[in-house]
Amino acid sequence: MTVLDRRTLLKGAALAGTGLALTPWLPAWAQTGSAGIVKPLPTMLGPDVALRIAHQMITIDGRSSHAIGINGTIPGPLIRLRQGQVARLVVTNDLDEDSSIHWHGLLVPFQMDGVPGISFPGIKPRSTFTYEFPLIQSGTYWYHSHSGLQEQMGHYGPIVIDPAGEDPIASDREHVIVLSDYSPLHPHAIFRKLKQMGGYFNYQKQTLAGMLGGRDQPAKERMAWGGMRMDPTDISDVTGSTYRYLVNGHGPSDNWTALFRVGETVRLRFINASAMTIFNVRIPGLTMTVVQADGLPVRPVTVDEFQITVAETFDVIVTPSEDRAFTLVAESVDRSGMARATLAPREGMAAEVPALHARPLATMKDMGMGAMGAGAMDHGAMGHDMAAMGESAPAAEIPVFDPSHPEDPAQAGDAMAGMNHGAGGMGMRDFANAPGVKKSPTVQTISPMPVDRTGERGQGLEGVEGTVLTYRDLMAVHRNPDVRAPGRSLEIHLTGNMERYMWAFDGVKFNEITAPISFVQDERVRVTLVNDTMMAHPIHLHGHYFELVTGHGDYAPRKHTVNVLPGGKVTFDVTMDAPGDWAFHCHLLYHMHAGMMQVVSVRAAAGDGA
Amino acid sequence: MRAALLAGAAWLLPAAAYGQAMEHDHASPPSVEAPAAPEDNPHAAHGGEPSGTALPAGTAPPPAVAKNWAADAYHDPAEMGRVRASLWKEHGGASFSQILFNLAEYQVRKGGDGFRWDGKGWFGTDIDRLVIKSEGEGRFGDGVESAEVQAVYSRAIDPYFNLQAGIRHHVSPNPSRTYATLGVEGLAPYWFEVEAAVFLSAKGDVLARIEGYYDQRITQRLILQPRVEFNLAAQDVRENGIGSGLSDAELGLRLRYEIRREFAPYVGISYDRSFGDTARLARRSGEETAATRLVAGVRAWF
User: Fold this and answer.
1) Dihedral sign of CA atoms A191, A197, A200, A203 in order
2) SS3 category, A10
3) Peptide linkage before A481 cis (omega within 30 of 0)
4) Which residues of chain A lie closer than 8 angstroms to B192, CB-CB?
5) Given this model, what pLDDT does residue A260 score?
């Protein structure tokens, strides 16, 4: 029987040398889709690794489509390195277009960072580039293309760097879990559709049926949101309507399976390699102890669920003590689909797959009205005022100027009366609240009262049962390497316009910037990211770790990517210790492509500073 | 700082203790040995003094802007320049296009069925676009009764609205006319798609048009679109059968099903009526001044 043969073979590979007897226990009711794929990603052991980028097919849940892979797989092979080695990664580009590999989260010399146009010229078709750098850190990382939209097509893979000595995080077994999103549509087609219609992929919009069925906002609130041209269902730009959500390249029906033996401590290295998808991750029946964030150790936090934004990594420890299967669920934040895998003591097992949660609706807080306090701001009161505001600007007047336009006091005056609840004003596009932001059509809204939301659960997790990780729960195991006070502070606004699908920092798209954000080498700066949009943005700084200012003093969690919740803000301190030019961008691929990107320049203090 | 990290020792010493804790007790979260700060007062990690992120930031001025590109020291600056230019353009500067027929329909009319279209196409960047618009109607057998084409330059003037200027050519009825046009188009509060324009002919005639529609989603794919269009004139244009004031209006209600976003067949009803002098002119030439039509068509874009 071929199934048995394959199973035997795979079991042999996965539990090599354990001598565990094969028990083909597979009741029919446990089968969902395939019997499960117990196939760990191929591993390339460093320090010398050869990688080949090429077109290939990918088969997800039985359907094949075109993709870009590395060494023939999607995700690419697990690159396993050891701290203290000098890695030599020889990358050959077999595509007909330029390509590149960026080592996400690795502290490398800038010219090895792999961003075409910033760190190097890219890798031309049919040519090879050799990356060489010392490995000064350990942990879970990943790599991906920084050329065009190749990452969406499968051009990514995991990296694990083992510590030079004994691993402080002990486990009996580990599995790398690469979460990603895949669409049979070409990424250029996805981007074009978003430009043509921002809500193209959203099939969870508010409807008449939804309102009558009680799934949507009540009429009054909906009117108020309509008056502001804000869609509370706009959680993800690209959704399960076109995406399949993958675990290690396998779809939910493929049921990728990670094996364990009862009682083992199992380390799961989660990497969100998605182009556009923030995931909510849980394993019903198991608690997870988070021990590492973005590759660096954190004090263990035990949770039932955590949100992993695009490009983050989290290592968790689970200790399954029952002889049964567990379903690993990673729901997309807009609840339009899920990635699913199984943790099981044997191949061919499956546990119940829970139904998707109800889709979340954005709140006033997501519009940056957080500081008003829940009581005063809750939908009733605010909704009423907003509706009143809208009535003074009937559509038939064809307002050339948005009634909430602050530049035009004559129009804004009366219309805004209902919004002015005291200090600051509550205009949804009041540039007085963001003096550094360029007044342009790129900026649809400006958060009037953004608040630090690092102590809050991510979107869609507000009401779920159990313990959910927040950024405030994270605390570094080791004292931060630089505990100086920041010499200065810097505020950067995350801005966008969903209607035109424009995204930018401070209202200036990357193609419009005239100067990089400049730093003097080794200066320590406090950076506050203010989210003026109604979507979360995973912001990534290349070449540096930053310390989140979340109340943990010199044990602040250090990250390379931080999710800034809608209408919220995040503050971090960073020591700009790596000279060179670095990319700084939103890691939602199409946001970056639309212009939400900048160059960060770090130059030695001495001399001309240039 | 990097050196500190590289030193590595900081990583390994507490690490070992941590690892042991982990092995001893799987069920509860392992405790962390040195250099643990007191959990209840993490701000005061060492000697009770605030440290690290607990410290306030200074007010130093930002440094001068870097004047060169670091990679030029490692790679051919000309090649870097080319790649940099394409990187910049690619991230925010690309051009796109769309052709949309909001109406493309068959009309059931008294005395001979007809057809109608209303569409536009745009090409350009986020801010600057060339827009071609066309609308018209006709009767099977008689051909096109009325048709126009506009070519306008469109510029985004706020997050939702575009200012548009260009020309409008009215092909029929004869005689054809060409107008200069100035208008705005965009998304009004409450999700109304609206468009308003004035037209100035070479002879000095001034016309205006206001139109708008709203997509009421009944389900995710079933959408009811009420639509209105008003045409106005500042003076009589007798040869075109247009009287001053409100000349005509269309009220439409169309129910479409989005098989795909880009392809949605619909059925609906359209009520057309002419007013004032326009109606008088129509009556004089034996045309009807009000009509209710059943329509069926496809809303499509690509």
Assistant:
1) positive
2) helix
3) no
4) 395
5) 96
Chain B residues with beta carbon closer than 8 angstroms to that of A403: 189
Evaluate if residue A607 carries a pLDDT over 70.
no
For A512, the 3-state DSSP assignment is helix
Give the list of residues 6+ apart from residue A454 with CB closer than 8 angstroms, or none.
A470, A471, A472, A548, A550, A568, A570
Q: Cβ of A398 and B188 within 8 Å?
A: yes
CA distance B161 to A182: 34
Give the tens place of pLDDT for each residue, A314-358.
Answer: 999 999 999 999 999 999 999 999 999 999 999 999 999 999 999
Edge-first strand listing for the sheet containing A86-93: A63-70, A48-60, A86-93, A127-134
Query: Do B282 and B289 touch, CB atoms closer than 8 A?
Result: yes
- A264: phi then psi, degrees, rounded to nearest 5: -70, 150
Rounded to whole angstroms, the Cα distance separating B212 from B192 reads: 7
A484 contact residues in B (CB cutoff 8 A)? 55
* pLDDT for the residue numbered B25: 37
Among the residue ranges A5-9, A488-492, B257-261, the one predicted with the least confidence is A5-9
Contact B156, A500 (CB under 8 A): yes
Range of lowest pLDDT (A399-408, A588-597, B122-131) = A399-408
Q: Say yes or no for a CB contact (<8 Å) between A522 and B87.
A: no
- Comparing CA positions, the residue from A104, A86, A159, A113 lying closest to residue A559 is A104
User: Closest partner residue to B64 among A518, A580, A592, by Cβ?
Assistant: A518
- Indicate the residue of A289, A400, A577 with minimum beta-carbon distance to B157: A400
User: Which residue out of A442, A554, A574, A599 would a mutagenesis test of the B interface target, given it has the greatest number of B Cβ atoms within 10 Å?
Assistant: A554
Of the listed ranges A126-140, B36-50, B109-123, the least confidently predicted one is B36-50
What would the mean pLDDT of B17-24 be, rounded to a whole number? 38
- The CA distance from A29 to the nearest CA of chain B, in Å, is 31
Q: Is 50 exceeded by the pLDDT of residue A595? A: yes
The verdict on a CB contact (< 8 Å) between B159 and A402 is yes
For the entire predicted model, the pTM comes to: 0.87
Which of A118, A136, A522 lies nearest to residue B6, judging by beta carbons? A136
CA distance B158 to chain A (A): 4
Find the CB nearest A554 among B4, B52, B74: B52
Over residues A515-537, mean pLDDT:
97
Question: What would the mean pLDDT of B71-78 be, rounded to a whole number?
Answer: 96
Q: What is the DSSP letter of A316?
A: E
Yes or no, beta carbons of A486 and B57 under 8 Å apart: yes
Q: What percent of chain A has pLDDT over 70?
A: 84
Structure tokens at A500: 């035109």
**For residue A33, how many other CB atoms are within 10 A of its CB?**
17
H or E stretch covering A52: strand A48-60
What is the band of A460 on the pLDDT scale with cuts at 50, 70, 90? Answer: very high
| Contacts of range B235-241, beta carbons closer than 8 Å, 24 or more positions apart | B235/B205, B235/B206, B236/B277, B237/B201, B237/B205, B237/B207, B238/B281, B239/B175, B240/B170, B240/B173, B240/B175, B240/B177, B241/B173, B241/B278, B241/B281, B241/B282, B241/B285
Does pLDDT of A48 surpass 50? Answer: yes
Q: From the candidates A161, A196, A204, which should be mutated to test the interface with B, based on the most B CB atoms within 10 A?
A: A196
Helix axes A409-417, A379-391, angle to 10 degrees: 140
Q: Which residues contact A323 (CB under 8 A, 6 or more apart)?
A: A262, A345
CA–CA separation, A560 vs A230, rounded Å? 31
Helix, strand, or coil here: B70? helix
Contact B52 A547 (CB under 8 A): yes
Q: In this predicted structure, what is the pLDDT of residue A463? A: 87
Q: Nearest C-alpha of chain B: how many angstroms from A190?
A: 12
Are A308 and A179 in contact, with CB atoms under 8 Å apart?
A: yes
Give B276: exposed, middle or buried? Use CB within 10 Å, 0-12, 13-18, 19+: middle
